[in-house]
Amino acid sequence: MPKSPLASVLAALALATLSAAPVLAQSEDARAISEDIFGSKTPPDDAYGAFQRGYFLTALAMALPRAEKGDPTAQTLIGEIYAKGLGVAENVARASSWYALASKNGDMMGTFELALLYQDGRGVPKSREKAAELFKKAADAGYMPAKYNLAMLYIEGVYVEPNMVKAAELLKEAADSGLPEAQYDYGVLLMEGAGAPPDPQAGAKQIGLAAEQGLPAAQVEYATLLYLGKGVTKNLPEAVTWYRKAALSGNAVAQNRYAKLLAVGEGVDLDLQEAAMWRSLAKRQGLNDATLDKLLVSIPPEDLAKAEERARYWPGEPPTATADAGPLLEPAAPATPSAGGEPPKAP
Predict the structure, then answer these.
(1) Domains and CATH numbers, the chain
(2) Is the peptide bond before 237 cis (omega within 30 degrees of 0)?
(3) DSSP per residue over 217-240, as a string?
(4) Do 254 and 221 touch, CB atoms closer than 8 A?
(5) pTM for this structure?
(6) What percent helix, strand, coil does the chain show, rounded to 5?
(7) For the segment 282-323, what is each residue's pLDDT rounded down to a tens digit?
(8) How far apart are CA 56 and CA 43, in angstroms?
(9) Does an H or E element contain 185, and which?
(10) φ, ψ at 10 (rounded to 5°)
(11) What does R_g of the chain's alpha carbons equal in angstroms?
(12) CA-CA-CA-CA torsion for 276, 282, 286, 289, nearest 10 degrees?
């Protein structure tokens, strides 16, 4: 399920907050992200400008007078500051009050943020029914993350009437807007013919788009489609590439499958030590595979020891690593699996 879109603004602040003085060059990227999220129809917003540069107390001081006069954008900003504890003590209950005011005054982002709080029971009593109501309100206003969440509720069919056709329509809208979670889940629906006529080629394309945006679950699914030649032309080397990308992000399923391919040299050079390292990383996350264990039964004890030591220090290398231990691995990113279907079966 998509996180709050404001999270991308916070990520852009990592560099902007290194200096105590405002630096225009540092804030330009954050401003561009903000315009993508908040829109650029109105003149630059000083409160959001301060927020983007990491001056959260200044942003709060600027937003409060406007919020008290009913400005929904300022109310959402204050809600975000309290929800994340930015420059102030975290107070999700207070954040929910500001989001509620913003929602009442027509701000779709405030509505969406409030729906997330009700869904998780943070700062408000947990109520999936209320969350569904708010997701629908934000979706009807055209907010794509809300359309995605509402689609998931239609698929679940508990807090709204089950409707796979409506779910597919909402997912398509969100996918067409570029939301990777929606691209992945819409692709799965097309592959299965759920809520829409089956179209493996279109489904694979959507899953591929989500994979290209860095969604690990989509990368695993797309790799499997390439491995099987389902909806796309079979391509083992490319399948290996996508499994490896997802493995590097920390996805246990991808780590397990990449290890299998390395263990038999399918689509990649056979490398038992590398395979054993990835197996160890997958096991660390609770994914055990007896078939993979059998493939690695012949690995020399010294190679197994090296593999497990490398896994222990992953994504770096052990302090005692020598030149023949292989290149440093790429840094891992947090895995963010989609709320969609189950992972595909291992090749």
Answers:
(1) 1-126 (1.25.40.10), 239-339 (no CATH)
(2) no
(3) HHHHHHHHHHHHTSSS---HHHHH
(4) no
(5) 0.75
(6) 65, 0, 35
(7) 999 999 999 999 999 999 999 999 999 999 999 998 986 544
(8) 20
(9) helix 180-192
(10) -65, -35
(11) 23
(12) -60
